[in-house]
Amino acid sequence: MGRFIPRRTSKFPPSFDFASVFPPRDLSGLDFTQRIGMTEERIATKRLVFDKEELAKLRNGESSQVKNPTRVEAVSSYIWRRFMDAAKDRGCGSETATIAAVHALNPRPRNSPPLPPPMFGNCWIPAVAVMSGAEGGDEVELVGKLRAAITRIDGDFIRQEENGEYLNVLSRSVDLFMKGGVEFCNFSSWCRFPVYEVDFGWGKPAWVCTTALPFKNLVILMSTPCGEAIEAWVNVVEDDG
């Protein structure tokens, strides 16, 4: 006699209405065939751990430019500065090399009114901060540019995205990248994802990490199991490592 196993019902069932907010667009006039960041070069992944004390030091050092910089902003600015130094060492435009930091943001809580958290879809909006080698820029200045780029993504900005402006911005970014005018370092913060609460039946994980991705200049930020430190998984070309 088979056992009856009751189905669990989600407290927040997924919604599949993203198309009502961001309707499909005609992409026939845009060229997205170029693979930004995807490379045939050999990629090395580095794991950097910023403990509680290091995070406090970074945040305190950058607080003169931005009030109460977050842990993610502080770590991102620090790594961004290292990417700029590496580009300078390679001679990429020498002192005038332009390095853009791109943070992937979740538009749901930033919309006005906020979109429901369970609205299903791979939807994110890039916050782009740009700094050229000619401007110099230490972590203090970089965190200010990063904060400005992130706070710019608000309800008004998202309404413009709903009208398709995002595609035009993305197309211009692709053109700029392909012309060699700018190099991107790409950030994605998973720090508030409840990855250590996931239980597939054999217990909660002791340690969670991201898989290897063939994408250069990619930085994934994750909380450590204790929640007080941040792990940065950084993809770089092997020669830069």
From TrEMBL:
It holds the Pfam family Transferase. Belongs to the plant acyltransferase family. Signal peptide: none annotated. The keyword Kinase does not apply. One of its GO terms (molecular function) is acyltransferase activity. The keyword Transport does not apply. This is Vinorine synthase. Keywords: Acyltransferase, Transferase. InterPro entries: CAT-like_dom_sf. It comes from the Eukaryota. The gene is VS.
